[in-house]
Amino acid sequence: MTGNHRDKTITRRRAIAVTGGTVAAGGLAVAGYRSAFADDATTAAATASASAAGSECMTLMTSVTEGPYHLDGALVGKDITEGKSGVPLTLRLTVVDATDGCTPVPGAAVEIWHCDAWGYYSGYTTANPGGSAPAESEDGSTADDRTYLRGYQIANGNGVVRFETIFPGWYTPRTCHIHVKVHTGGEKEDGTYEGGKANYTGQFFFDDTVAEQIFTLEPYSRHSGSYTTLDNDMVYDGGGASSGLLTLKAVHKKDPSKGYKGFLTLGIDPDAESTGAGSGGGGGTPPSGAPTGTPPSDAPTGSASPSSSASS
Hints:
Helices cover 2% and strands 27% of the residues. With 312 residues, the chain is mostly beta strands. Strands 1, 4, 5, 6, 9, 12 and 13 form a 7-stranded mixed β-sheet that branches. It has a 4-stranded antiparallel β-sheet with strand order 8-7-10-11, with no helix packed on it. The longest helix is centred in the last third of the chain and has 7 residues, at 208-214.
């Protein structure tokens, strides 16, 4: 990948530092899971005083837009791939209460959604990912075009959730990312999560070196074009773990196709509410064919959450 996509009309957001454990409205603390990576110096900056589950709360950050690809009604499940091909990615996320000494938040519902290896989202499989990519229908999988790569997990007693998914691809004009919402106060019902409120809406990001290596592999390599690096992304603000940068560990150091494990700690304010609809966090134009707030007629139960801010 060239990593040379640039849109000079976009001004990147810069980090809003909220230090010393002070929680901003709708704020989130994110940190690498340090017990697994004690030698990872990148997770050592801007720590708050308390720790939980072997990781530390970090500088809090504000919510960012949910983007135009969110759909209500995602299912609760650990494996969200539905047969979509790609490099395996296991996410281990820990939800803690940043207002109460970073204690675990059992029962928190973590919702994630992201594109497939060619840049397509379920529910919006005709949206052009930019560059040159095969049609989504050519992937040969049996995945449900309305639900793949979307799902909830409910945090256990230690505030931990685990997802089995694939490394996301990319689409113009965004860098590689995963969307996330953290919910509390609801309950599992009819296979999904109902009620409560969203305490945080944000995005996870990937180191450019790892991402660009992945994108040389099948099936990612069939999507050609200019990949947007972290420095040029309209949402990522350069804050490292505190801005959603995942800590990654290769399953096999010499063979990236074997997959990665990603770790992050999510420090929420359980009293805050942040849907991400119309939030800040960039701007810019979504890919050609991207939704404008109305889901396709055959989209999953529920409606696409409207977003007046188009960063996706």
